[in-house]
Amino acid sequence: MVNVAIIGASGYTGGELLRILFHHPEAEVTVATSREYKGKPVHYIHFNLRGLYRGLIFTDVNLDLIAKKSDVVFLSVPHGASLKYVPKLLEVGLKVIDLSADFRLKNPEDYVKWYGYEHPYPDLLSKAVYGMPEIHRDELRGANLIASPGCNATAALLSLIPLVKFNVIDLHKIVIDVKVGSSEGGSKPTLSSHHPEREGSIRPYSTEGHRHVAEVEQELRYVSGKDVKASLTPHAVSSIRGALATSYTWALKDVGEVDLIRMFTKVYAKEPFVRIVHKSPPGHPNPKYVVGSNYADVGFSIEARLSLIKSFAAIDNLVKGAAGQAVQAFNIALGFKETLGLELIPIKPV
Amino acid sequence: MVNVAIIGASGYTGGELLRILFHHPEAEVTVATSREYKGKPVHYIHFNLRGLYRGLIFTDVNLDLIAKKSDVVFLSVPHGASLKYVPKLLEVGLKVIDLSADFRLKNPEDYVKWYGYEHPYPDLLSKAVYGMPEIHRDELRGANLIASPGCNATAALLSLIPLVKFNVIDLHKIVIDVKVGSSEGGSKPTLSSHHPEREGSIRPYSTEGHRHVAEVEQELRYVSGKDVKASLTPHAVSSIRGALATSYTWALKDVGEVDLIRMFTKVYAKEPFVRIVHKSPPGHPNPKYVVGSNYADVGFSIEARLSLIKSFAAIDNLVKGAAGQAVQAFNIALGFKETLGLELIPIKPV
Amino acid sequence: MVNVAIIGASGYTGGELLRILFHHPEAEVTVATSREYKGKPVHYIHFNLRGLYRGLIFTDVNLDLIAKKSDVVFLSVPHGASLKYVPKLLEVGLKVIDLSADFRLKNPEDYVKWYGYEHPYPDLLSKAVYGMPEIHRDELRGANLIASPGCNATAALLSLIPLVKFNVIDLHKIVIDVKVGSSEGGSKPTLSSHHPEREGSIRPYSTEGHRHVAEVEQELRYVSGKDVKASLTPHAVSSIRGALATSYTWALKDVGEVDLIRMFTKVYAKEPFVRIVHKSPPGHPNPKYVVGSNYADVGFSIEARLSLIKSFAAIDNLVKGAAGQAVQAFNIALGFKETLGLELIPIKPV
Amino acid sequence: MVNVAIIGASGYTGGELLRILFHHPEAEVTVATSREYKGKPVHYIHFNLRGLYRGLIFTDVNLDLIAKKSDVVFLSVPHGASLKYVPKLLEVGLKVIDLSADFRLKNPEDYVKWYGYEHPYPDLLSKAVYGMPEIHRDELRGANLIASPGCNATAALLSLIPLVKFNVIDLHKIVIDVKVGSSEGGSKPTLSSHHPEREGSIRPYSTEGHRHVAEVEQELRYVSGKDVKASLTPHAVSSIRGALATSYTWALKDVGEVDLIRMFTKVYAKEPFVRIVHKSPPGHPNPKYVVGSNYADVGFSIEARLSLIKSFAAIDNLVKGAAGQAVQAFNIALGFKETLGLELIPIKPV
Fold first, then answer.
1. Contact A315/A296 with Cβ under 8 angstroms?
2. Using the beta-carbon criterion (under 8 Å), do A347 and B286 form an inter-chain contact?
3. DSSP string covering D233-283, please?
4. What CATH number was assigned to the domain covering residues A2-127?
5. Which residue is catalytic, options B6, B32, B140, B151?
6. Phi/psi at C313 (nearest 5 deg)?
7. Full DSSP string of C33-89
8. Is the pLDDT of residue D329 over 90?
9. Phi, psi at residue B337, to the nearest 5°?
10. What is the mean pLDDT of chain B?
11. Measured between beta carbons, which residues in chain A are less than 8 angstroms from residue D193?
């Protein structure tokens, strides 16, 4: 049994880690921190968990205690906050799975450019493994520091990997239009998440360049071995859960539907959590039909007249886009069966 | 391993039976019928199940084949349709769990009164067990014919059982106001379920007397040993899943909060799927926080000035209100642990 | 042309006052106050008003300036805040329409009981007119201080007035179950209004006694001339706009459908904003079909077996439940045609 | 007073024509046809219109009667159906505003290519005016046959006109990603519009080439005088009303934010229904804030690193995207003030 600490356990991602790990046969949550709800049982804010986790109480972050009580730490804290904890946790021999952006980028300069700060631990950046099994499964085995991908980046990458791997698109003109549910903004109320304002909205944001592009370009570069230029524009829509990436790319050569089926199948057939949805109901990926699960539904289409390929990936932003993918990486890193705790069936209709 | 057939497997309740039974360690679905989708794999309409149940194809109803391939049959068909199948299935020795209303009422005259037909098998009515474990757990053990409760009735009953059992309310003035999500209407599109019409609606229906009252009164009579008069008025709201029953009753004697806590705890403390929500966040039961699970969250409040008790029960109408409760009864009837396959954690937020 | 000041103009009710008064042929908004958005144009927060009201800038509350620039003041501030402004405004000769609860109750003791404070101006309470034209149209003519009703109270009262007026129900057992949209909570983000938490919710609140009952009982007492005991329990559902009151009452005598049709018609036939919806599509009142307008759709049903009358009123909580009803009272008070500025057609579907 | 007939008046667009024309000072609806609801009053299905339009009853289509009773005909029928009526209506001297696609395309071959039929009246195609005032205001004056634009096309065009007019983008690489609410699918229930399926969905469709591209390319060609290649991919999201077009284009030359402000202002400053939303709350166009009105909110952004321009247009798909734009064209065609009947203020929040 692996003992697990969750730092930042009262937010939505923390809640999902608790939900997923509850039935994980090889993991047990021994520490759950929350500044705001310190002293309260976890169901005090995660109402769904009432009656489960009896005895688990939110605590403050105490790294010594965490080191004593746990083997692996999931960090579910705002960008920037992980920097405080990761070096110390690694030093005392814990494995760390960081769900923030603090260790996702390899190039320290990218932190200056995209996040506006000088990264204090450039050496750790090179040790961290980007936690997407579909790209880095081998490096994840035994990894000590895993940087779990962003949700928009996950959807974007899954829609593009086959096209990039088989080198059939113009890598300098990648347009990714993402639509996301309201849970992506986290559990803190804001004016734009206020129900009367959010419900019914279709609202573009981060339109001058979204930070997740940095990791998308980095990983597509890794997959293709070439320079990549991508744009990612998220749009807040009124779902609660779910993210759909619609990627628009131009075919370099004559690529037909059968070619795409072959490429996507080749890349994803053995992936335990990627399902190809193509010309079978419901026609195209729709995040609605993966809600609650770690699945990513991917698909594609060609507008032949324009040699324009449209590829899609639908995920539950809090599962494959966050907590689920982190547990998937955890399973790989610790040598468990990759699907442990993740045999979650999507709920329909929901 | 128990082999299970689902007659009427393409609707929402059928889909939930498939979702729940997939991970049930003692059951295997061997037959799934659907007139409309005959010949198609189950994920053809249950998009969430893609990649699971490989090889399970919808078939027509063939009772001989069902008798050969299964031990237990779940009937998830419209009211009236079960009558055709049940006697034959029982005759050949299968256990039957009927999710329709066809065997819920003990008194044959109630079928004339509430459903408008003369019941052809009054003898079976007396053999059928009303499948709510919180009332009939003992009779469910070994039962061959189980009539699974209606979703509104389930919520209504759970909100009222303690009050009726402890004889503290006026049994002739019970007002039950139910609010339900759109999935309760089933998977067939209608004008009132058309998204532009349903979303944002708050619409009362069956206001001159809802059929589920018949089973509510029957079961409350059973619990209290007295005559009961109740009214149940459902309101369609724009959730997808969930039903909340708000029951208004007048206290016969001086009943305080502490008394109610004691009564509800006494009745429900050992129930594996009933959770009491009282003055702890989120304050009162809200079906949102049981979605996807078999839990019923119950609670209560007193408007002391008026001696008016308000009691609440929140369920997922497709789980505790349908497929989940049916599997719970199945587990009891077959001597399995009651929670098998039902260790589903609600998803939040969703 | 009447010059109008709106104190508290940046909230949802303030926004609706601005929307409605923009096309009012006899009124012009000259002052709009907002502490938070002082110095910004009104469309800075009321995005819908972009391009209209050029030049209208939010200011601080300055009573001298308001006295100079306006003839009538709408107060759209939190309960308790109106007390600071009303006496002074009346003193300098302005008419005041207060949308808070501060002047709704006639009996000063009710403020102690329901709002927890000693009312400092009991004399003004007797001068204030409760601003529901369906009850107090005559007293509203020329009134100087109008206390505009609460939204839940408005729906509750409209569903009950005919039954009470014709003395056909047990006045001591009135149960009002209200379902309300999220805009009722105002424009300030809170945890329970956070989109991921509110959407899909069915959440009872104020279950031990809702403050609006005080005005409901007061007005029903006024209409009936008798003692009244009512309970009002609101439930947050996931609509944005709209409130439906479902009132449950027991018939004192043999009352049939035709009697109810006659009573409701007698009371409401000449009301410009009350529409009777009975057994014609959509069957019962549904707030969805009055959104954006000042209409109240009312209806009823009898569960004959129980002598239980169910009566319904559906309103847009921000229009007939707030800004619209206030403008209706304003029109009456100033001698204008009652429907001026309020010829708003509900939007469907929305 | 102009007498107006609406053929196909029971759908959502028909309902909006009725809502808008009710307060139009120069128009009166004298005929409203509906096969399905023949003999019923218009509020039988347009519940919002209860109490208005007393005496207006749905009838069958009778062209002789229409010719007698009306001067102008709005056709709100499925694609293909207008062909039956238009020639006859023109012949007897009526003005026709067709909201279907049957007369939108100038080149008869486009009908074969995009709609799959040989157009029977190619001569009428050249006479028809594409009813977007922002492009064809002058030709609309006095026009007898107006082909009202599609909703997706309207949003797409409004987001692109300034960029195309000022010749600053690569006209062969235009990617338009559209997100639309459920009312765009019309008033007939289908599986994909069934509330439990649609709510929460993010579903791409028509991905191999959407028909509206034909009119988008035609009109952009008209504006630019050059060849244009565009792709338009709609996505069903869970709003009821609203369409947002996000257009991705590459700058041909060095174009900065100030240039774009200048171009958009130059093109739209005098347009009565186009509002520019740029770096003022809410930041970007969001269809939520034009609901119920004829406004189009437009905006833009540059991802400078990539020379990628993103331009946005948000409309209410049933107003500026259908009925409202048709009335705008009607006003111009008949020489009325362009905004008559259209002084509708968006409702917020809704």
1. yes
2. no
3. EEEE-S-SS-EEEEEEEEBSS---HHHHHHHHHHHHTT-TTEEE--SSTTS
4. 3.40.50.720
5. B151
6. -140, 130
7. E-STTTTSBGGGT-GGGTTSSTT-BEE---HHHHHHH-SEEEE---TTTHHHHHHHH
8. yes
9. -60, 135
10. 97
11. none
Task: Kindly determine whether residue C241 and residue B173, on different chains, have CB atoms separated by under 8 Å.
Answer: no
Q: Do A48 and B290 touch (CB under 8 A)?
A: yes
Number of A:D CB contacts under 8 A? 146
D90-136 residue pLDDT tens: 999 999 999 999 999 999 999 999 999 999 999 999 999 999 999 99
In chain D the beta strands, taken as DSSP E runs, fall at 2-7, 27-33, 58-59, 72-75, 95-98, 129-130, 145-147, 174-180, 203-204, 230-236, 243-250, 274-276, 296-303, 308-315
Q: What are the structure tokens assigned to A298, written together?
A: 């991917």
CA angle C285/C291/C295 to nearest 5° reads 60
Helical pair C12-22 and C324-333, crossing angle rounded to 10 deg: 50
Angstrom distance (rounded) from CA B298 to CA B260: 12
Among B69, B107, B67, residue whose Cα is nearest residue B87: B67
The confidence score (pLDDT) of residue C253 equals 87
Q: DSSP alpha helices (H): ranges in C113-229?
A: 122-127, 133-140, 151-165, 195-198, 212-224
Token code pair at residue A140: 């994840």
Predicted ipTM > 0.85: yes
Interface of C with B in 181-210 (CB under 8 A): 181, 192, 196-197, 200-205, 207-209
Q: How far apart are CA D303 and CA B318, in angstroms?
A: 46
- 10 Å CB burial of residue A279 (0-12, 13-18, 19+) is exposed
Give the 3-state secondary structure of residue B233.
strand
Q: How far apart are CA D39 and CA D34, in angstroms?
A: 9
Which is it for the CA torsion B31, B35, B41, B43, positive or negative? negative
Cα D324 to Cα A80: distance, rounded to the nearest angstrom: 49
d(CA B246, CA B176): 6
A248, containing H or E segment: strand A243-250
The strands making up A174-180's β-sheet, listed across from edge to edge, are A203-204, A230-236, A174-180, A243-250, A308-315, A296-303, A274-276
**Torsion angles phi and psi, residue D94, rounded to 5:** -85, 150
B positions 330-349 inside 8 Å of C (CB): 349
Fold equal for C2-127 and C152-317: no
Query: C195 Cβ partners below 8 Å, 6+ apart?
Result: A182, A193, A194, A195, A198, A199, A238, A240
Q: Is A304 exposed, middle or buried (0-12, 13-18, 19+ CB in 10 A)?
A: middle
CB half-sphere exposure, C243, CA atoms < 13 A: 34
List active site positions of C.
151
B146 assigned to active site:
no
B215, β-bridge pairs? none
Tell me which chain C residues have a C-beta less than 8 angstroms from the C-beta of D22.
345
* Angstrom distance (rounded) from CA A97 to CA A113: 24
What is the model's pLDDT at position D216? 98
Structure tokens at A186: 């986290």
Q: Which chains touch C (3 or more CB pairs under 8 A)?
A: A, B, D
pLDDT digits (tens, 9 = 90+) for A143-178: 999 999 999 999 999 999 999 999 999 999 999 999
CATH topology of domain C152-317: Dihydrodipicolinate Reductase; domain 2 (3.30.360)
The C-alpha of D178 sits at a distance from chain A's nearest C-alpha, in angstroms, of 10
Per-domain boundaries in chain B: 2-127, 152-317
| C-alpha dihedral sign at C99, C104, C108, C110 | negative
**Which one of D181, D191, D199 has the shortest CB-CB distance to B189?**
D191
The partner residues of B187 in beta bridges, in order of sequence, read none
User: According to the model, what pLDDT value does residue A253 have?
Assistant: 87
Q: Computed from CA positions of residues B288, B289, B290, B293, in that sequence, does the dihedral angle turn out positive or negative?
A: positive
Are the CB atoms for D326 and D340 separated by under 8 Å? Answer: no
**CA distance to A77, A153, C175, per residue, from A44 (Å):** 19, 32, 32
pLDDT at B44: 97
Regarding pTM above 0.95, the answer is yes
